[in-house]
Design brief:
With 179 residues, this protein is mainly alpha-helical. The chain has one domain: CDP-alcohol phosphotransferase transmembrane (TM) domain (Four Helix Bundle (Hemerythrin (Met), subunit A), Up-down Bundle), CATH 1.20.120. Helix 1 packs parallel to helix 3, helix 2 runs antiparallel to helix 3 and helix 2 packs antiparallel against helix 5. The N and C termini lie far apart (55 Å). Pfam families: CDP-OH_P_transf (PF01066). This protein catalyzes the committed step to the synthesis of the acidic phospholipids.
């Protein structure tokens, strides 16, 4: 495989792991299956970091990668949160806020690109949000419930704040909305 294809292959691996992760949690009701799911989620999360790092390092950023990488991240995290609701490990209202923010910011990114080609880069609050979400999911899955819950609520705070921050920085797009 040519090195320029490796970041996209990692993204595809992450997407392919989502149904495996969901099936394990759907049919595996033991702690061992939850730990296996946590390992799969952790591996998929590492590919998220690695594909972006390699694409930038090797200067092989592609349109597929620009589209598929953030989509894969959202699909992975949203699937995990939905499964945590099913397993009664995460409150639905917290997950609803997280999912709504992800969809709203994705829509904002599309609007920014459509109106001027601006790319909304991830700021530090968004990176903290992602980090705390991923670790909350892992810790909840391995039944480190207190740490997982603390991280989940920290993730919620950064989810709300980073969403606000992105929209505040793009408020000029909506200045004529209510005139």
């Amino acid at each position: 495989m040519k090195k320029e294809n490796i970041p996209n292959a990692l993204t595809l691996v992450r997407i392919a792991l989502i149904p495996v992760f969901v099936v394990i949690l759907t049919f595996g009701h033991s702690s061992i299956m939850h730990i296996l799911a946590a390992f799969i989620f952790a591996f998929a999360s590492i590919t998220d970091y690695l594909d972006g790092y390699l694409a930038r390092k090797w200067e092989v950023v592609t349109n597929f990668g620009k589209f598929a990488d953030p989509m894969a991240d959202k699909l992975l995290v949203m699937s995990a949160f939905i499964m945590l609701i099913e397993m009664k490990m995460a409150p639905a209202w917290v997950v609803a806020i997280i999912i709504c923010r992800e969809l709203a910011v994705t829509g904002l990114r599309l609007l920014l690109m459509e109106t001027g080609g601006t790319v909304l880069a991830a700021a530090m609050p968004g990176k903290i949000k992602t980090f705390t979400q991923m670790f909350a999911i892992i810790f909840l899955l391995i039944h480190w419930t207190l740490l997982g819950q603390v991280l989940l609520y920290i993730a919620l705070i950064f989810t709300i704040y980073s969403g606000y921050d992105y929209f505040k920085g793009s408020a000029y797009l909506f200045k004529d909305t209510f005139k």
